[in-house]
Specification:
Order of helices and strands: HHEEH
Number of domains: 2
Largest sheet: 2 strands, antiparallel
Number of strands: 2
Structural class: alpha+beta
Helix content: 25-40%
Number of helices: 3
Shape: elongated
Strand order of the largest sheet: 1-2
Distance between the termini: 40 Å
Radius of gyration: 20 Å
Amino acid sequence: MARPIEPTPVLYGEDAEQLLESLEHCASPEEMKRRQEYAREALRELEETGQIVVTLKLRKQNCPFCHSHDYWVKHESETLFRVYCHGCGCNGPAAKSGDEARELWNKR
């Protein structure tokens, strides 16, 4: 048998004011779509200039820190590639190619 759900506590004073203030700064669904499109466009520009290699083949292993499924392979120099997590920004080991960086990420 499940336990009864505890009632939600009522906020008063400064706690209530902080909650209301934080809610004012939440992004609307339209703003979230705008931000996502901005991020997609920024990634496209980085990929076109060769600064980053974007791949969707990498969705095998979750990020070990934030459990995100969204990553990209960054071309850091002529011979250095690394996987980066969109969720928390952590990175995988350095590799000589994008494929090797993906393999190392999935083996960690």
